Amino acid sequence: MSEAREFKYIGQNTIRPDGFDKVTGRANYGADMSLPGMVWGKILRSPHAHAIIKSLDISKAEAHPGVLAIATHADFPSVTDEAIESGEGSSTLLDLARNVLAKDKVLYHGHAIVAIAAKTAAIAEQALALVDIDYEVLKPVLDVRTAMAADAPLLHADMFTQGLEEAPTRASNIAVRHEMKLGDIDAGFAEADVIVEREFYTPTAHQGYIEPHACTVRYDKDGQSMVWCSTQGHFDVRSSTAKLLGMKLGQLKVIASEIGGGFGGKTTVYLEPVALILSRKSGRPVKMVMNRDEVLKATGPGSASRSKIKLGAKKDGTITAMKGWLAYEAGAFKGSPVMLGCMTAFTPYAVANMYIEGFDVVVNKAKVAAYRAPGAPQAEFAVEMLVNELAVELGRDPIDLRLQNAAKEGTQTIYGPKFKRVGLVECLEAARDSAHYKQALQANQGRGIAAGFWFNVGGQSSVVINMNPDGTGTIVEGSPDIGGSRASMQMMAAEAMGIAPGLLKPIIADTENVAFSQGTGGSRTTFATGMAVIEAAEDVVNQVKQRAASVWNVTAEQVDWADGVATNMAGEERLTLAEVCAGAERTGGQISGRANINARGAGPSFAVHLCDVQVDKETGKVDVVRYTAVQDAGKAIHPQYVEGQYQGGAAQGIGWALNEEYVFSADGLMENAGFLDYRIPVASDLPMIDTIIVEVPNAFHPYGVRGVGESGIIPPLGAVGYAVESAIGAKVTDLPLSPPRVLALIQGNT
Amino acid sequence: MMAKLHITTSINGDATEFLCEPHDTLLDVLRNDLQMTGTKEGCGSGDCGACSVTVDGRLVCACLVLGVEAEGREIGTIEGVGDNDKLNVIQEKFLEHAALQCGICTPGLVVSTQALLTLNPDPTEAEARYFLAGNLCRCTGYDKIIRAVLDAAATMKGAA
Amino acid sequence: MARVVFSSEQQRLTKEAECDVVASTYRQLIDAVITRYPRLDRDDFMRMAIAIDGEIIHEPLLETVGDNSEVHFFHFIAGG
Amino acid sequence: MAVVDYQAPLSIKEAVTLLAGSDIKAKVMAGGTDLIIQSKSQAAEPLRILDLKHISEMMSYDISDAGLSLGPAMCCAEFTALDDVNALYPGLVEAAYLIGSTQVQGRASIGGNLCNSSPAADTIPALMASRAECVIHGVEGERTVAVEDFVTGVGRNCMQPGELLQSIWLPRPAAGTRDAYLRFIPRSEMDIAVAGAGVSVSIDASGTCTAARVAIGAVAPTALLVPQAAAALVGTQLDESALAQAAAAASIAASPITDRRGTADYRRQIVGVLVKRAALIAKQRAQASL
Known about the structure:
The complex is a heterotetramer of chains A (about 750), B (about 160), C (about 80) and D (about 290). With about 750 residues, chain A is α+β, with helices and mostly antiparallel strands. In chain A, about 25% of the residues lie in helices and about 25% in strands. Chain A has 20 helices and 30 strands. Chain A is globular and about 85 Å long. Chain B folds into two domains: about 5-80, Beta-grasp domain (Ubiquitin-like (UB roll), Roll); about 90-160, DNA polymerase, domain 1 (Orthogonal Bundle), CATH 1.10.150.120. Helices cover about 35% and strands about 15% of the residues of chain B. Chain B has a five-stranded mixed beta sheet, sandwiched between helices. The radius of gyration of chain B is 16 Å and the shape is globular. Chain D has about 290 residues and is an alpha+beta fold. Chain D has three domains: about 1-55, 2-Layer Sandwich (Uridine Diphospho-n-acetylenolpyruvylglucosamine Reductase, domain 2), CATH 3.30.43; about 55-170, 2-Layer Sandwich (Uridine Diphospho-n-acetylenolpyruvylglucosamine Reductase, domain 3); about 175-290, CO dehydrogenase flavoprotein, C-terminal domain (Enolase-like, domain 1, 2-Layer Sandwich), CATH 3.30.390. Chain D has twelve helices and 14 strands. In chain D, helix 5 (about 90-100) runs antiparallel to helix 8 and helix 10 packs antiparallel against helix 11. At the A-B interface, helix 1 and helix 18 of A face helix 2, helix 3, helix 4 and helix 5 of B.
């Protein structure tokens, strides 16, 4: 988008088209589907963090009355180590199969081993207790430090570190080493007058969606199998499941239910292939629903991380060098987002000399999945903490220092391209000028500020808009709607067609009713699927103009289109969209527009957050007392839902910073697998979260959209972390800043 | 094993009978036997509030009530909120304020908000936040939910 | 001449951060790069993200490359 | 445990008879917020549930000049809304208000909290501070046990098989005597206590503390009365130094463990902070009641 333009519908706060169903309980989520004759599947999970399965005997379970089918890893046809697309794009089919049902070895507490289908869930659970497994328990590795040690117990005897100069001869828990550089890092530090350096830790944190994973499936021998499930990408479920089971894509229909939160965690499969095996074996539809314990133990958390960051700056505030070392936990199988950590860590800054290396490390925890801006919060937390320290060392205002060094148009990123127009400076200025930043702090309070960068993602989206004879229409798209994106699609189509949004009904079609579309993730839906919606809407408009032209016996170029009405420029005739649709049978058949695109030109969204905390110095308890989230939306299609993304990202990040963490026993058993002790923020934990929407249009999107879902979770870790640091006057290195940790910092016992 | 128990109850004002096992929770019965899937399951341990319903007007988690306990009681669920095709003020305000994203927590929050405003028609922000602390939402950060609740209270007061 | 900037993984194979090639299309550009750096794998290019003059592109095969274009290869980006 | 039978006795006599005569393991249920979760999570031992909520004495209360007789199964939501109770036992009401969410309070009861006998139960230190007693209906008649003697270990209490907690008795506090309960949790709501403190103080017209009870929770296998902490308060003006001594006594009395909710060292420290703060609140309430 090259210039500011006036919109008729974009930028309004419409009522979402799926709203009625959601406030009345009518919307159907993953666990809400039942089929005639349906039976229930349950999964037996590992009681150990690391063990060899010496023997597995299912005979007693098979004989249990009411049991209809049993699945183990042996039920997967020979799977290969081909790469598969998932949230991270770096998993293999073999690893996926071994994660879905363990082969020979269990690699984390809760690792799935055997699945049983029975007439009722209770019978299935009774039968699970009859499975005999003999384990040889091994020592677990639970942290990157121990995992990277030369003598560490190995999770995979056949894993050799990739990315080393020389091919290693010994197996390792380090899957990959990445390295990125820009300029001359040593020269950069040589120029510096001030150097700050620190090591950081962030814990394993879960996406924490309220809806557990669930599916209902039916395997039909005639090749018409179907999966109903809660997912961010039903086409990815189709491809992963079909590959694991040796099916053709055309043999499997995947229907995306309404989805009760994902945040990256629903970009892979856990239950779906298992349920299909059970259905195939039992000849019955099978329903599987995880409980909360299973969700926390066995579905993708975000990576825990360790990092070392070093920054150098001149007295005048110019940052001359940024150096980093990142090690991310991948969980049981390789594929942490550490590369994305390397790519994002320093990217808010225009600095000539940068160097970062990253390590993808397997540990005996659940395989990580994408979690909102995967890899970025961990790395940017560490960098933002140190940029704040640098500001103190230089005697500078932290926003002012960031403005001096902020990435802007033309800035060379460490990962490759130079930035086009980006909105970091505008975000920093908005934060600086906010009432929040001017408010004085009270006793025992501290203020933190942090910036965040996320690329945003384009990619493939397919859309069809089918017009009805009365001028209403259906927008058929393939991107699951997690946070209200149907409202945005409706508005963008309405804008492009010049008709009221309410005339168009957006739906998420199953894999048979729309062409391939990538999943909802990476903040791509409003940008990329939105672009496809606009293109499909323009296709409708072009066809309508053609039809009107044929009615008037003129060329399409002689037809003007405005506000949903075609006008014959040669005469005075007018035809509304509805009139053209009503007459479509006489002008060439019904009208439908389409677009199958691979969207290019994704534009980064920068965020800047301000956080004030109050610390109880006797207990170490931290209360967030004021919070402001500033972020560049490019263009906010539906401002309320854009604000909602900022607020939701902030709340998740605050939870990560303050209380969320996985707690393991020395044996590697997860001790807090429930919402009681995995403490996500509750309503009374948070203040209102103020938002400032900055709009620096993305030149590559017709309406200027950038995508807003990810960036908001990045700054809270640093903003909260530094607010606590400044309130207590002690250096913060480890998250979460739970009361015991903060009290220890206050008392100097770290 | 005993035979299933026959329970006679009232759900959203409708006389209802069902059969259940002694171990079935009210949530199991609502969702699996009565196909009333508006009440959601997020944890099964009373920690998330997605299954909020009322029993004799008292707000509870349906996962922490046995189905047999419904005998002779008045059960209220999300399906009973509003009047047929007309939303009530709370539901309207949730939509107007965009107080939902994925929407899985919304039925529970609507039921809980109704319970709050029945007990306390004019809650402060802090009162609303503490009353609703048992209804987890992972998407919104609660800001818009609390605004919707307070606006619903003000609107209902204005109408009264 | 278009300027090609390699990803850090590619740089391990090319031993150079960037090079200039004569190409007017993406196809010609890849051909030229592989001729110059035979250790690079043609298939690997399919698994990388590319940006031409700052615009991130996923389907580059038919793309034209300008005389002064900068083409960056980098790690594929997914998301949550 | 797997629930295979459910009974809803209408009288205490019927409940006790059912309890004594059960051929399988039988447990009484008040709100069920602990029992239903426990019955889901464990192996398949058959369980009969006796629901006490249909017994009117179990669900009601009686307040008199002598004190409060509380039906153990009354839900916390109902209990915390009782103005006459709140006027006399604000600390116990506070504790009941802290149990779980609004939804959980719609089911959970003080009797259930007591009989579940968790070290972290919120109402137990509050009951101890207010000198509460348990009236137990046994096979051989009624007996009365002080709350501090009722709980005997983690998840254990002094009730014998076949016995039933019939009512909870709290003597009426005189003017100048009031209680307070505070707990510490990492969030603002929805957590289990990392530590808790119930304090009752009696003060005279001069502001001197004439009697005190201090009980602490979640820092030992059972909630503990800490007479040393109480002794540090008696005879003082509840000034800062007395409060600090009481806090120190509570920290010394604690024998906490490290778990997912907090470290032993942390719990030991903050239980003292809670005693100090709860004593101050109790003092203000006591003054206001004079």
